[in-house]
Design brief:
The structure holds two protein chains of two kinds. By secondary structure, chain A is mainly alpha-helical. Chain A is built from 14 helices and no strands. Chain A has two domains: 2-65, no CATH class; 71-288, MetI-like (MetI-like fold, Orthogonal Bundle). In chain A, 74% of the residues lie in helices and 0% in strands. The chains are: A mainly alpha, B mainly alpha. The interface between A and B is large, with 99 and 103 residues.
């Protein structure tokens, strides 16, 4: 009787009131506009001169002039900085994926007290704030002649390791040992065992490791600031920082800063538009463990 | 079989372990030790690290420093506000998207977008918004809400400015995690609820919330860690002016504003910072894990 009385859409999780869904869509649309507002605001003001930005910040530009954007892009050495940032990100993430996947595999397959201890130390490192080791780190690397781009990549490699091992380790435990045993009986080498059996199987978590590490390395400010400083070869974020700081804290030339910010965020936004499926999946996978 | 993997353990694990030791473990241990010395960055006052050992002197000094204590309290205030604000906003977004059902991919994409951008770039945009747009909308002649004007020129107001900004930035990330959690809740739990005729609030309170505990653990962990360690947005918005330095920035500033740069003292602040983050992180994981089991 009760069963018959319940509506056919009982499998849906909440009772839907008529109009309720439209109201939710309306609220979501408003929030979406609010979320986009600072970015739209940034975009329209990248086409205006200082006077127009300060006097009428919300108005559309009178003429869409690209002069401020091209000025700002050359000010922050956009081409070179984007190339350097991309290079650092790709090499660092490659290093992280290589080292952490192999390390996690060995930790999973040698499940002893000492490897559980190692895993604990590696994951506990996620709690260590960068500030508590940055000065000794920079100091040590400088004495080895590594206060430069290669050193920066090694540092990212070490920092990304904790979280990445945590993610890989959780995922690799579900890779059946029997698969590897079968491959070994067929005479597979350790290299093909890893790269042809294990690595393809853990591909979803590799996407996560790549996305999460790329995001912070691409945008990171502090480490390049400490390692590279105001050197000739800077990352995008660092170029942006110096463009703003050298222009002065209180007399802000927004006609330079807005297009510079726009330039510095465009590469990652374009990437996101094309690869958003992987971004969302990567983040989700990382959260579910 | 286990002998085979044992044979390969060191060759394959070593690259990662060396990298970890060189970048994280060794500098961390050295940093612990240096916090008890008169380290000046390029040299030690007593000649070598051992002979410039000063015991707890650096720690005694930082706990007398008003700037350090202020940044400590400021960081805790910010963290408490930001964690609540980001988690609640992320949960509300997830529940709304879940309720709306299909055709929400575009919303999801938009809400996640601010996460891609660096804190520095975002901070510069928001600085202008707070200093110009907010003053225009909420200032005299506008809505006349004094609290929302000149938000970056006052320690307390800037706290709210930072919270608004990081909520805008991070809520979308937490939303994704909550959505994954909501999708893991078995539908028949809600069916059972519907059959028993319970209302929406009861369902949320007694089905959704307990079942979401794993997601809540992760969200709290991520928001706590990122709020406690926040630096870029702090640099971009005020760079510490008007008593607005959080701990990360305070540690950077200590070596810039002491002559010769007092790295020993900065290192002591950094160790206190680590202990704070570790304790809060462990307590949080312990409590929420316990709730997960109970639920």
């Amino acid at each position: 009787m009760i069963r018959a009385a319940s509506s056919p859409d009982v499998h849906k999780r909440s009772v839907r009131m008529p109009g309720g869904r439209i109201a939710v869509y309306a609220v979501l649309t408003l929030i979406a506009l609010g979320t986009l507002f600072p970015l739209l605001f940034l975009s329209i003001n990248s086409f205006k001169d200082q006077g127009a930005i300060v006097a009428e910040p919300m108005a559309l530009p009178k003429d869409w002039s690209f002069v401020y954007i091209s000025e700002a892009l050359s000010q922050i050495n956009f081409g070179q900085a984007a190339f350097i940032t991309a290079g650092i990100t790709i090499l660092s993430v490659g290093l992280i994926v290589f080292c952490s996947s192999l390390l996690s595999w060995m930790l999973v397959r040698n499940n002893s007290t000492s490897s559980r201890g190692l895993l604990l130390v590696l994951t506990a490192a996620m709690l260590v704030p960068f500030q508590s080791l940055m000065y000794p780190l920079i100091h040590q690397f400088e004495s080895f002649g590594l206060k430069n781009l290669p050193g920066l990549i090694l540092m990212y490699g070490g920092f990304g390791l904790g979280m990445s091992v945590f993610l890989y380790h959780g995922f690799m435990r579900s890779v059946p040992l029997a698969l590897e045993e079968a491959a070994l009986i067929d005479g597979a080498s350790i290299g093909s065992l890893f790269f042809r059996i294990v690595f393809p199987l853990v591909q979803p978590i590799t996407v996560t490791v790549i996305i999460l590490n790329s995001l912070w390395i691409w945008n990171d400010y502090l480490l390049p600031f400490l390692v590279l400083g105001n050197a000739e070869h800077k990352t995008l974020t660092l170029e942006l920082y110096y463009a703003k700081m050298l222009a002065g804290q209180f007399s802000n030339p927004w006609e330079l800063i807005f297009p510079a910010v726009l330039g510095s965020i465009i590469p990652i936004v374009v990437l996101y538009v094309f690869l958003q499926k992987y971004f969302i999946k990567g983040v989700t996978e990382g959260a579910v463990k | 079989m286990s002998g085979y993997y044992k044979k390969w353990f060191w060759p394959l694990a070593l690259p990662g372990l060396i990298l970890f030791a060189a970048v994280v473990l060794v500098p961390f241990l050295i940093g612990l030790f240096y916090s008890f010395t008169a380290w000046r960055g390029t040299y030690f006052v007593g000649g070598s690290a051992w002979s410039s050992f000063v015991g707890l002197e650096n720690y005694a000094r930082i706990f007398q420093s008003r700037q350090f204590l202020h940044s400590l309290v400021y960081t805790l205030q910010f963290t408490a506000m930001a964690v609540i604000s980001i988690s609640v906003a992320g949960l509300l977004l997830a529940l709304m998207l879940d309720y709306a059902g299909k055709r929400v991919a575009l919303f999801r994409t938009i809400f996640f977008l601010p996460n891609l951008l660096g804190g520095l770039a975002l901070g510069f945009i928001w600085q202008f918004i707070y200093q110009n747009v907010f003053n225009r909308i909420f200032g005299e002649g506008g809505l006349n809400i004094e609290f929302l004007t000149n938000m970056t020129q006052d320690s307390t107001k800037n706290l709210f400015a930072l919270v608004i900004m990081v909520t805008w930035q991070m809520a979308g990330y937490m939303m994704i995690i909550f959505i994954a959690g909501l999708n893991n809740i078995p539908r028949d739990l809600y069916e059972a609820g519907s059959l028993d005729g319970v209302n929406m609030w009861t369902k949320f309170r007694y089905i959704t919330l307990p079942m979401l505990m794993p997601s809540i653990t992760i969200v709290l962990f991520l928001t706590l860690a990122s709020s406690l360690k926040l630096l870029d947005q702090n640099v971009a918005l005020t760079n510490g002016s008007f008593n607005t330095s959080m701990l990360s920035l305070q540690i950077l500033r200590t070596v810039r504003y002491t002559q010769p740069p007092d790295y020993g003292q900065a290192q002591a602040q950094a160790v206190v910072f680590f202990i704070l983050v570790a304790i809060i992180g462990l307590i949080q994981v312990y409590i929420t894990k316990k709730k997960e089991v109970d639920a």
